[in-house]
Design a protein that fits this description.
about 550 residues; alpha/beta; Nucleoside Triphosphate Pyrophosphohydrolase; Rossmann fold; 3 domains; 8-stranded mixed sheet; 6-stranded parallel sheet; 18 helices; 22 strands; about 35% helix; elongated
Length: about 550
Amino acid sequence: MNQNAQEIIEEYLNFFPKEQRRLTGITERFPLGKSIVSRTDFIGHITVSALVFSPDKKNVLLIYHKQLQKFLQPGGHIEKFDASLFDACCRELREETGLQDIKSLDLTERQIPIDIDIHSIPANKKKNEPEHFHYDFCFVFVAQSTEIQIQKEEVTDYKWTPLGEVTGNERLSNIFQKVNLLFDQKKPMIFFRSIIERPYQDVSFLVVTHLLKDRPFFLEALSSLGNIEGIIPKPNSINKEVLKAISDRFPILPLTKASLYDVNMLSPYIEKSKNRIVLLDIGGYFAPIINELKEQFPEKIIGVVEDTENGYQKYVALSSLNVPLFSVARSVLKENEDFLVGESVVFSTDAVLREYNILFDYLQCGVIGYGKIGKSITFNLQRRNIKPYVYDMRATREVEAVNNGCYVTSKKHLLEESGIIFCATGNESLSTNDFTSLKNGVFITSVTSSDDEMDLSSLEKIYAKQEVTTHITKYYNDNNYFYLVNKGNAVNFIHGAVVGSSIFLVQAEILLCVLELSQKKCHNGIQELHYEKRDDIAEKWLQVFNRTSEE
């Protein structure tokens, strides 16, 4: 049983690493070899307890313990016949409460306790037990009934207490916080499982993706549909911790957007796959070679799912598209994400400029591109009482900008007058010639990769540059100077590009697009998921993330 306890603590600390120091009183005893589950060890020994929620998860069960004379969660000591600490906890719970129909609320999916606590137990003269420590492992359960039959030898009373009324018990308060934390972490997989109730298929995926903190959930869900043959990370959006976690699970391919202009760079990975392949794209990485790939591997290439507007435009620009392509770029489910991206762009720009002792509230702001993200940027600027200049190539969007209280102006005037410019087209907002027209001292920020949003290829031939802060580069020559934020890449990636649970709406739609491609005969060309399936995604998202469960 010592071995079981040691393995549990190691797993436990993976979830709660900050508790390492607090648990040294237990961990330093394992190398000594003596069992610490026996109740005759009066230095200290392991016990188990159960945090039991009512069927509606609104109340918690507390029993009145005779010896300690207080209400606590059910629990007790380990017996020799117990197969594991978890089994001991189930036994104690049934013995003390009479509850037979109980369900483990296994938030870690590994039967790891929600809490391990070290506390002192006073001496018991009747049992000839000196004062000692309990190393208590607390597991979580949901009762299927509230009918209790207490074990009167040790328990005299019980109560189902509303969660908000459990006061004065610091340990239970901490446990509730952990339950909420782990449940929040588990919500994405609960949501994805509700969307893709399908078996694993003989299909493989090559995936272009950001490696941000939301991505492991999506990739795990995708891997339940087929085999992920390789990940191609977007180079300017890589979280190092996420990269390490992902590389332990899936192959990371040494490919870049530039290298994918050569079909022979990708062909070997497709050739070695035994399955048909769906390509998941962000930004049109596969667009230059997609038709050639289909020609080389007519039976293997099923189709493409594209996430972004600028990627969508790259596929639209092809003279022909010889595979089915599902786009989520203009989905109603993406609107919330796009709005939050605009909000995060404004937040990150503000934070970066403050590091340079600049407040953009006092600068004239210009926004190039009045699509969904550009519109969100202007809205968030207006929240700060900033009325921005807007330029868009499409007159209908400029009319919308006027109606929404923006100044609409020519691109030339915007470049000459703005103190800060947000580039939000995804399709080269600024050419090399545009940079020469900029107002001196202007700050340039982007909502996407520099190679999509602006032409930086010739800048270093006509400008010198200086890194003035971690995230700001000054470009200058005898004629003008300007500041480029985050080397022209998406400014919000500096702070993780956080858009909350809204990202899972779009990722769920991508998963259903994958299923459409792999299970049906889809026509060549660009198409979208049916609106009824989008409604189903939205309803399930609301149930998991935005509504109180009635279960």
